[in-house]
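Budget justification, computational time. The allocation requested in the original proposal was used primarily to generate structure tokens for proteins on the priority list. As evidence of use, we reproduce two of the resulting records. The first is shown immediately below.
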Amino acid sequence: MAEPTLAAGASAAPAKAKKGSGGTSLWRYVLIRFLLIFPTIFILVTTVFLMMRVTGDPITAALGGQLTPAQLAERIEAAGYNRPLIVQYAEYIGGIARGDFGTTIDGQAVTGILLRYGGATLELAIYALVVAFMVGIPLGMLAAAIRDRWGDAVLRVFAILMYATPVFFAGLLFKLVFSVWLGVLPSSGRASPRVELQLGRIDGASGIYLIDALRTGSWPLISDVLSHALLPGLALGLLTAGVFLRLVRTNVIGTLSMPYIDAARSRGVSEFRLVRTHAYKPALIPIITVIGLQIALLLGGAVLTETTFEWAGLGYQLSEFLKARDFVAVQGIVALLAVIVALTNFIVDIIAAFIDPRVRY
């Protein structure tokens, strides 16, 4: 009787080791991904700095035709742009490490601008993601359920059109139809002036209008905020919805070819039920892994969307600073967006590693 006991003990030890190995590999993966954030941010920030210096110093770029040579030289010396480039770069990196993204030409702290308008861009990105999930995932499941039929072809063409249509063109088209022709939705702004004034008076306002409106519990305020958000959210969200539609369709079709799906199909389970019940969740894992990339796409599209709808966020401010040739402000905003993208990719990678163990190996 001793031998079976020994064998059982021997077989149990590797099982524990395997479990421990899996936990160790997860934390090793998290640590590696965390450490990779720093070189990624460093490369992105350095690239932004060098690209902004290609045109020369920011003072000359913004005020070169407005000041006399003596005044221009004085402003350049006061800002420190006459020093060696390596010294400027070291101060720039040190400032970012302290949360200081520089000062605009007119003396505003870029960090204050980021805090003031960042909530608006975050709110727009959330609206766009909601639209992308609500449109892309159900249509992707439907396309997989009716694959290789005419409806599937229509949905695939629809996905290509959504991804290929420029954001500003979709925004102008939505404004023309729903604001000009039908007159049912506002064409610009985050809220009506009266609502913005009320939301600005809330103690501890978050800067995200929907959250602030929900805190008041006033339906007129909530509906006003949502009506202003609908068109820009659609314009930006449909861009990502096209990606989600094709990705869900491809992965659901791949899951439907698995042996356990064939077994369920042989028992008479309908195709729609197979998609909805058995193939849906496995197809969502690739969606999670690409969300980080889509955040970068949304932030890039936010510049055009916010400009089209006069949505007072970082994208709109970035376009205004580009018009004014205020490259210090542009540099600060782009650097912050690069940091956000790097951190978002890290969070998404960790979530994917928890959901799918294959990612961490």
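The second record produced under the same allocation is shown here.
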Amino acid sequence: MIEARAETIGSLIRPEYLIEARQRGTEMAAAEDRAVSDAIRLQENAGLEIITDGEMRRLSFQSQMTEAISGFGQWDLDAFLWGEWMDGDGAALNRPRPANMGVIGKLKARRFLSAHEYKFLAANTSGTPKITLPSPTLFANFYDPELTGAAYPFLENLIADVTGILIDEVRELARLGARYIQIDAPHYPLLLQPKTAAFYEGLGWNSSEWLALSIEADNAVMDAAPEICFALHLCRGNSQGRWLAEGGYEDIAAQIFGRTRAARLLLEYDDARSGEFAPLAQVPADKWVTLGLISTKQPELENLDMLCRRIDAASHYVPLERLAISPACGFSPSVLAGGLRPSDQAAKLRLLTAVADKVWG
């Protein structure tokens, strides 16, 4: 079990020099190495024990799959950003699903997804390296019966191959010495949104069946390396300060909390969209909960005492010794800039460790 009291989720704001290198398409490797090194120093200087590479080498938090695996057809950043995004004022930004988005052939690995990320990160930090991987069923978004049917007649056939790819990835990360892996599953809370639930139902699955299939796939990935501590991250989306869904965990808590084999649950709780702490009563006694109390959408710095009070409130459902704190989501889940400046991000990372020190000592 990883017992750190404070951690980031994964992504950090991309520096300008990295964005410029990506736009030029030149000197990318050197820019990425520099950006990861800067991200490591940022987290270590904030006092964090768990260190990510900021996902600096990725177009999106889940794009290492489509970059490393052939068969996805043509895709770009829009493949990871479609949906109805809402801002804090309730204004909607609709990003349509790309018309030709879909798997077009059998998935075949060209390389490992994140092994290269882990090797550089582990070699350059004295902390505990954390690698983030996508939940297998996130890639149901790439299932289109017309484009995909010849290669995968049924959605579960596609999910089985994606799961196998992630199992191979986890085994390689374990061989390299990884101790902590986070599985990102933002699509679970999206089931609380009628439009998103309708998309999955259109593929032939009601919400309960979809969750059962998804958790089974996640668990198969985790079972590939029992020596690794796994976390499951649930959020409601973050893109340039916008979000995709709202609603408490009540309708999905029993199925997810009770059946996942993840040892740590990383749960979004930065504002009223995420509901109350009461569903935490369904967390089994062998799991930790990392409370995502710090916003990565709003630049205002949270009050330390207020965060301590919220942790105390959550401890009525999960004992304090099994709680930790994090931001609600990644600071920059894609290369698109959000509403926070690097100085805002640094302040929030320092706040994480300040809260942890005050609450847990």
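A brief technical remark on that second record: The chain has a mean pLDDT of 94.
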